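User: Hi! I have a protein structure encoded as tokens and I'd like to know what sequence might fold into it. I'm fairly new to this, so please keep things simple.
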């Protein structure tokens, strides 16, 4: 195709299960298509080492730098896999947009840490690499997150209706796309993160496939009420959160140890579902179409419960596949799109979601 450019977006999210890489085609800053996907799982040791950085510990700076190098080796590997799959060379790619792995998100203190050695990724891949997308927004007074609403607006906006795009990763976030106003969005709270952590803790399995274990339990009303009382939910948007607030250690402070494990898991599913539904109802009461992406879409029990909770609002759940983008590809594709914005020196328009006082060109570039 003439006058088009290829970008690779790489995303590794709060769930810390691995890195998605998506090949997208752009014409300047105009989206054309997402063309291919590759995934590189995190090994057990890498994930454990990343999770250990969530807590204060010894030698954190050294450990962080070594993990940044390991991550960039993995990102370079998944990039090479994607190129080989499509019969492409590094010269065919205009740029990589790489988010890195969040290990600490503290917008109230003006910082958010994503681990990656972007210069190393550029060197290993042979492709110009753009990373560190959150710092510029934070410098302009924003939360540094979420960064995807502007991308969702570019792809999924309708002039005829208000839509919501719901990403259920470790943390859940929504993008509200009004028909006649700028998009905005925020983190609603836990998505898969607490459920995954509980399943790993109790059953030593990575996640609850299809929500089957949660379906065997019942909601514990007192536990649910205590979890929903978290002050984060009363904060106005823009707002963003992460493992710092909603951790397994925090969950344990609300448990007495006598609870049935399946009941706790069912309550955590209800917690995610109710906090998401309440966020949609309060911020987008006119929305009738909710398009879902992220790993949570595979949790059938969670999706069924969300559908029931949104029914009074007459809001129907759909996959983003109905809008021509695979739900597993959306977040990585967004960072390819942000890379195209950087290359074309276009502010991404994320400030409506993050609360930054002006639009900014996000990211920092590294030559191969």
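Assistant: Happy to help. Inverse folding works backwards from shape to sequence: for each of the 368 positions I chose a residue that suits the local structure. Here it is:
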């Amino acid at each position: 195709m003439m006058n088009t450019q290829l970008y690779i977006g790489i995303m590794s999210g709060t769930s810390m299960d691995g890195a998605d890489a998506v090949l997208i085609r752009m014409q300047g800053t105009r989206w054309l298509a997402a063309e291919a996907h590759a995934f590189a799982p995190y090994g057990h040791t890498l994930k454990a080492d990343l999770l250990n950085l969530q807590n204060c510990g010894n030698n954190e700076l050294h450990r962080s730098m070594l993990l940044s190098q390991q991550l960039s080796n993995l990102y370079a590997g998944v990039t090479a896999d994607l190129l080989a799959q499509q019969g492409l060379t590094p010269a065919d790619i205009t740029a990589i947009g790489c988010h890195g792995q969040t290990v600490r998100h503290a917008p109230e203190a003006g910082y958010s840490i994503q681990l990656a050695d972007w210069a190393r990724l550029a060197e290993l891949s042979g492709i110009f690499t753009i990373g560190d997308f959150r710092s510029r927004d934070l410098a302009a007074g924003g939360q540094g997150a979420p960064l995807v609403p502007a991308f969702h607006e570019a792809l999924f906006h309708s002039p005829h209706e208000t839509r919501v795009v719901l990403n259920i990763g470790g943390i859940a976030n929504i993008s509200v796309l009004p028909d006649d106003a700028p998009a905005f969005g925020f983190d609603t709270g836990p998505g898969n993160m607490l459920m995954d952590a509980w399943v790993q803790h109790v059953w030593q399995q990575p996640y609850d496939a299809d929500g089957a274990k949660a379906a065997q339990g019942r909601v514990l009303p007192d536990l649910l009420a205590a979890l929903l009382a978290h002050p984060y939910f009363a904060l106005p948007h823009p707002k963003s959160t992460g493992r710092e607030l909603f951790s397994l250690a925090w969950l344990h402070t609300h448990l007495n140890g006598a609870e049935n494990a399946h009941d706790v898991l069912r309550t955590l599913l209800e917690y995610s579902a109710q906090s998401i539904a309440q966020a949609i109802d309060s911020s987008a009461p006119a929305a009738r179409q909710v398009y879902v992406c992220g790993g949570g879409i595979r949790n059938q029990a969670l999706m069924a419960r969300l559908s029931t909770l949104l029914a009074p609002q007459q809001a129907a759940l759909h996959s983003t596949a109905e809008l021509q983008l695979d739900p597993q590809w959306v977040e990585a594709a967004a960072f390819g799109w942000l890379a195209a914005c950087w290359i074309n020196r276009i502010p991404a328009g994320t400030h409506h979601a993050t609360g930054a006082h002006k639009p900014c060109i996000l990211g920092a570039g590294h030559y191969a």
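A useful reference point when you look it over: The radius of gyration is 20 Å. Feel free to ask if any position seems puzzling.
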